[in-house]
């Protein structure tokens, strides 16, 4: 008799509780990661240094090549300005 009452109480309590939890605040969505900026494209130049038979490959971005060009141009200008 006790087992029947216990089973009946269990069934009634299970019937009263909803199977789906009550709607609450939706889980916070993870903020979207900003897309990674594209990698700069490398420009490679192959040149044989003076006195060598083996070419050497040098790779740099367009910005780095421009900075190198400006640096070399500045050095050439300073060497021209030096009196002999």
Which helices and strands, and how do they pair?
Blueprint (H helix, E strand, L loop, with lengths): L1 H15 L25 E6 L8 E6 H20 L3
Antiparallel strand pairs: 1-2
Walkthrough of the structure:
42% of the residues lie in helices and 14% in strands. It is built from two helices and two strands, in the order αββα. By secondary structure, it is α+β, with helices and mostly antiparallel strands.
Shape: rod-shaped
Rg over alpha carbons: 38 Å
Strand portion: 5-15%
Arithmetic mean of pLDDT: 82
Share in helix: 40-55%
Write down how many β-strands occur, each being a DSSP E stretch of 2 or more residues: 2
Uncertain runs are: none
Distance between the termini: 120 Å
The largest sheet has its strands arranged as 1-2
Q: SSE order in H/E notation? A: HEEH
Short description:
The protein is of the alpha+beta class and about 80 residues long.
List keywords for this structure.
2 strands, 2 helices, 84 residues, two-stranded antiparallel ribbon, 42% helix, alpha+beta
């Amino acid at each position: 008799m006790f087992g029947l009452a216990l089973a009946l109480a269990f069934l009634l309590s299970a019937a009263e509780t909803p199977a789906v939890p009550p709607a609450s605040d939706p889980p916070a969505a993870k903020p979207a990661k900003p897309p990674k900026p594209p990698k700069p494209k490398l420009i490679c130049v192959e040149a044989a240094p003076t006195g060598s038979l083996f070419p050497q490959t040098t790779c740099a971005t367009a910005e780095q090549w421009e900075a190198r060009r400006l640096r070399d141009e500045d050095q050439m200008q300073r060497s021209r300005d030096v009196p002999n």
